[in-house]
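re: ur question from earlier - yeah i can do the single chain one, its not a big deal. heres the input i used so u can compare w yours
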Amino acid sequence: MSRPAVSIVVPLYNAASFITETLRSVQAQTFSDFEVIVVDDGSRDRSADCVAAVAREDTRIRLHRQGNAGVSVARNRGAELATAPIVAFLDADDRWHPTFLSATLAFMAAQPALAVCYAGVRFVDAAGVPTGALSRLRTSPLSTRDLLAGNPTTTCSNLVVRRADFLASGGFPVGLNHAEDQLWLLTMHLRGYRIAGLADVLVDYRTNAGGLSADTRAMARGFEALVHRAVQLAPLEVGPAVPAARALNRLYLAQRAWRTRRDRASAAQHIRDALRSHWPTVSQEALRLLRKALT
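and the output i got, formated as tokens:
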């Protein structure tokens, strides 16, 4: 039996409300030569039962169950179990547009030296309804500051990587509750791997006002943990980039705090932190937004 062209890794933890819809978005792909490895990380709800029901009708989907060890361990285990040369990650509450695989795989095929690719992201609410917001996509070469300031892929559901490169990198770092994918991308960048994005919007990223990704103060703490590890990894390259990157990170978190929760206090705190960290960056961003508003 020939191996598939791409392995899709889905980490799963208590996502019974969304996992069937997520898997249906995979089944709706225009590119069909794939396998799906769902790693159930000790779910306590009916998540595994939902996956099993879909897998009974689609032999490309298989379920691996393990004790709760965290999302990085689950993703890394899925990549180890994968049989394809390309791995795509998809979180259990997100969705792909039908051409996600065909577009990203063609993008990588045209650039054999490319290790990681990603696409544009559309934000949807907890019910899956588009909010009108899109990711700020960077398709130009990424700098250390870019990768420190924020995750250019927005979500792990947007990552497509050559499996050999992923395994050689050591996989996602364990022990971070936020920004584990961002730290992995930064590590890949510092080691010289090529990372690039394509402009098409192909991923739906679900935001939840009560979810982990809506707690912007916790995300700020996650950023500081990322910076601590990144400085240890490459102090001469990372250290000088931190103040401006922190300012950009806090401006992003201010916007996110307002968009997801209308949390005025957190938004104001993030803006104060941005100004303290690197006020020239804040000024540059304000000018950029003003120019955008006037065009």
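DSSP finds eleven helices and nine strands in the chain. not sure if urs matches, ping me
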